[in-house]
Amino acid sequence: MDQPLRPSPPPLPPQQPLPLEGLTVVAVEQAVAAPFATRQLADLGARVIKVERIDGGDFARGYDTAAGGLASHFVWCNRGKESVALDLKDPRGLDVVRRLISGADVFVQNLAQGAAARLGLDAATLCAAHPRLVAVDISGYGPAGPYAGKRAYDMLVQCEAGLVSVTGTPEQPVKAGIPAADVAAAMYAFSGALAALVRRGVTGRGGPVEVSMLEALAEWMGHPLHHTMHGGSAPARTGLAHAVIAPYDAYATADGGRVLLSVQNDREWRRLAEQVLGQPALGTDPAYATNAARVRNRERTDALVARALGALDADEALARLEAAGIACARLRDLHELAEHPQLAARDRWREVGTPVGPLRALLPPITLPGGAEARMGDVPALGEHTEALLRAVGMTDEEIAALRRDGVAA
């Protein structure tokens, strides 16, 4: 007897394009905050035109030579962009930028306070001339107020925002090991631009977006800030330990490693005491049975955990903690992060083209299943796209030659 035909599987849905495909971004940017914001837009499909100074370009190009001879900050923040090198102090260079902006959907700038307004490139001016444009101004402290004119570099803003006051050890405050103020401002500029584009899709109008590094990082300070404002005292600096939870710290292992663990409730403490510390009675001992008691007796609590984990190598310690259902992690350095088994298992590494050849880079953390993979374009050389972009705005060979001869374009 003939077997019945099985129904054909449903066809796969067509792959979704990148969400910003077809949008153009023009950026007069430098350092980290604006470049990292516009890199997110490029990864999601936008065409990003980066306007740089003719004398060296974005000064982040000169921070170091660690990435195969290129600056690590620049490689990180500038893939997938087209570079045009122009002197904006010359009216002809500024005219090129204005022509580029006239065909753009988004403009982003993080020039020194007042510089964009002097050039007519501030968000208010541009949005008045181009009602559909989304124009993002990134500054250190905002356009008004007593700090508006202050120079704003990442570490300085970390200090002004109080981040340094809650980071470090009881004896020594320290800055974050990443440019936290820059990254905070970048991500709010990125999300602010997306929000304004959604609004434009509804109303037909773009509009200005303002982001300041101080306000972005102050928002990230929410927990210690609210703890202080409403509880009356600032959280103590505790190194890797948690200020109000114990045990929650890093502990040395027998092989020279360090393992972090976090006990979030008293049930977990009882499991830790029984299955890892080998002292079940500690689970109900009044000196340790509640988090308040463990924090009050933090030194003794930490000593108990340190003694138990110090007799194990890191792999064994992690295995025991996992088996007991205790949240834990290995304290990794950056070489170990680059070889992290989870990133490898999820195939998160790609190669990005640069002027010195391909370099490894992580896929951006926004994953859109069913859609095209993030566009991780090449890192541009300074002025690599100048000629093509000058032609795109209608300049003739003679005009381009004159700009190059006079040092207005490179």
Task: Tell me what the structure shows.
This protein has 410 residues and is of the alpha/beta class. The chain has 17 helices and eleven strands. The chain has helices spanning 33-43, 72-77, 91-102, 115-119, 123-129, 154-160, 180-203, 213-220, 222-231, 266-275, 291-296, 298-309, 314-323, 334-338, 341-345, 386-392, 397-405; strands at 24-28, 47-52, 81-85, 106-109, 134-139, 207-212, 248-252, 258-262, 327-330, 349-352, 359-362. Strands 3-2-1-4-5-6 form a six-stranded parallel sheet, with helices on both faces. Strands 7-8-9 form a three-stranded antiparallel sheet, covered by helices on one side. The radius of gyration is 27 Å and the shape is elongated. The termini are far apart. The model has no long low-confidence stretch (mean pLDDT 95).
Task: List the topology elements.
Elements: E1 24-28, H1 33-43, E2 47-52, H2 72-77, E3 81-85, H3 91-102, E4 106-109, H4 115-119, H5 123-129, E5 134-139, H6 154-160, H7 180-203, E6 207-212, H8 213-220, H9 222-231, E7 248-252, E8 258-262, H10 266-275, H11 291-296, H12 298-309, H13 314-323, E9 327-330, H14 334-338, H15 341-345, E10 349-352, E11 359-362, H16 386-392, H17 397-405
Parallel strand pairs: 1-2, 1-4, 2-3, 4-5, 5-6
Antiparallel strand pairs: 7-8, 8-9, 10-11
Helix pairs in contact: 1-7, 7-8
